[in-house]
Inverse folding.
């Protein structure tokens, strides 16, 4: 996808670089935090359409709350779990020194025209495409098994 | 000084396992007592996970004698501030040195080839 984006002429080189970072980091998380623990179907759904300017990733893994509860057993709901995942440097694979990825994803989406919708459980993170936007987290009606991400540009 | 050109590992560098594999592949060519510089030229994307993993193993290997060459790569510039804040270790020290050099060269408005970061005193 990154090379397609780079040569598509639809986005700048910088946005191609950053979109690839965002998609790569979210997709890698699906594998890194579910390896050996896939509840039923392993792997990641991944699709993109450069004309529609959309990238979608989804997995049927354990979700963010179950992953982070290994290091934050006090997490009570999916909303708190997403807040921690996107704002604090903490990893569900502690004591490994990791947990930076979603913080970078958030900062990229907030600072560029890249938009993000990220759902896990009953919580949704949204960062609109408009400039000057900030991350919002809300509780949704529907439960998403694993994670579901839509990246717009 | 040894230079590692990241383009040798590909144009899109994603995931921690791939970062570790890249370090394992280049390690036989490195000597722990010789400083290393990292060149990001001709790479489209480096994710924070890949870079963190690669730098963690590399700085462990040579005691932190690693410098990041100035770059305009958007993914690298996005990842570095978070990596610099994440921990207080050799990776963070390497990243913070690089950020300071790039900031200084930006403010002095020197072309890349004229910046004198290589001659800074080592701490």
């Amino acid at each position: 996808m990154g090379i397609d984006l780079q040569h598509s002429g639809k986005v700048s080189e910088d946005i191609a670089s950053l979109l690839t970072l965002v998609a790569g980091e979210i997709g890698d998380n699906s594998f890194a935090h579910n390896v050996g623990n896939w509840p039923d179907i392993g792997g990641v759904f991944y699709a993109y359409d450069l004309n529609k300017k959309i990238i979608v990733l989804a997995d049927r893994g354990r979700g963010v709350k179950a992953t982070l509860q290994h290091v934050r057993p006090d997490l009570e709901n999916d909303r708190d779990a997403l807040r921690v995942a996107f704002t604090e440097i903490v990893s569900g694979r502690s004591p490994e020194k990791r947990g930076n990825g979603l913080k970078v994803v958030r900062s990229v989406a907030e600072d560029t025209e890249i938009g993000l919708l990220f759902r896990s459980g009953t919580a949704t993170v949204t960062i609109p495409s408009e400039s000057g936007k900030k991350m919002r987290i809300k509780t949704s009606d529907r439960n998403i098994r694993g994670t579901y991400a839509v990246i717009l540009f | 000084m040894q230079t590692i050109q990241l383009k040798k590992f590909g144009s899109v560098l994603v995931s921690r396992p791939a970062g570790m594999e890249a370090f394992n592949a280049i390690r036989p060519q490195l000597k722990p007592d010789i400083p290393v510089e990292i060149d990001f030229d001709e790479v489209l994307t480096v994710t924070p996970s890949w870079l963190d993993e690669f730098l963690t193993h590399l700085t462990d290997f040579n005691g932190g004698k690693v410098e990041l060459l100035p770059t305009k790569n958007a993914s690298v510039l996005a990842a570095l501030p978070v990596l610099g804040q994440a921990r207080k270790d050799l990776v963070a020290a390497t990243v913070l040195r690089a950020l300071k050099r790039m900031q200084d060269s930006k403010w002095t408005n020197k072309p890349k080839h004229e910046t004198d970061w290589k001659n800074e005193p080592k701490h």
In short: The first strand of chain A starts at residue 44 and ends at 49. The two ends of chain A are 14 Å apart (CA to CA). The beta strands of chain A are 44-49, 54-59, 115-127, 136-152. Residues 13-32 of chain A form the longest helix (20 residues).
